[in-house]
């Protein structure tokens, strides 16, 4: 099993979700996160005061899948989230040793 994790722009979430649903993904976890990379934040003017926003809002997706699906999901997410601008995000795949469905006690792929 694999865990596909993506950090994307909030505006890209709807497009990514639709692409994943078309592929057949039945579930995912979505979290609001903040951070920075190459953008290094930005300056804004609020009520006449210049402030520095150090962290930029992003969306984090997490999807558990079988090994064979990981590369396809990575490509789907990257394609749907891509605008060509700095800050589009990152997608990575991590191996998962064990998963248990709490309600039933199912283990492994059956718990996805």
UniProtKB/TrEMBL annotation:
Chain ranges passing through the membrane: none
Coiled-coil residues: none
Biological-process GO terms, alphabetical: regulation of nitrogen utilization
One GO CC annotation: cytosol
Record-given protein name: P-II family nitrogen regulator
Pfam families xref list: P-II
Family designation: Belongs to the P(II) protein family.
PANTHER family linked to this entry: NITROGEN REGULATORY PROTEIN P-II, NITROGEN REGULATORY PROTEIN P-II HOMOLOG
GO terms, molecular function: ATP binding; enzyme regulator activity
């Amino acid at each position: 099993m694999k865990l596909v994790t993506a950090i994307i722009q909030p505006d890209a979430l709807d497009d990514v979700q639709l692409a994943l649903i078309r592929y057949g993904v039945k579930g995912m976890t979505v979290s609001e996160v903040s951070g920075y990379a190459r953008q290094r934040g930005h300056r804004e003017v609020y009520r006449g005061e210049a402030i520095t926003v150090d962290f930029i809002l992003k969306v984090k997706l997490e999807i558990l899948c079988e090994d064979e699906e990981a590369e396809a999901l990575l490509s789907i997410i990257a394609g749907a989230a891509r605008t060509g601008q700095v800050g589009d995000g990152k997608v990575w795949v991590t191996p998962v040793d064990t998963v248990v469905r709490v309600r039933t006690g199912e283990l492994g792929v059956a718990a996805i």
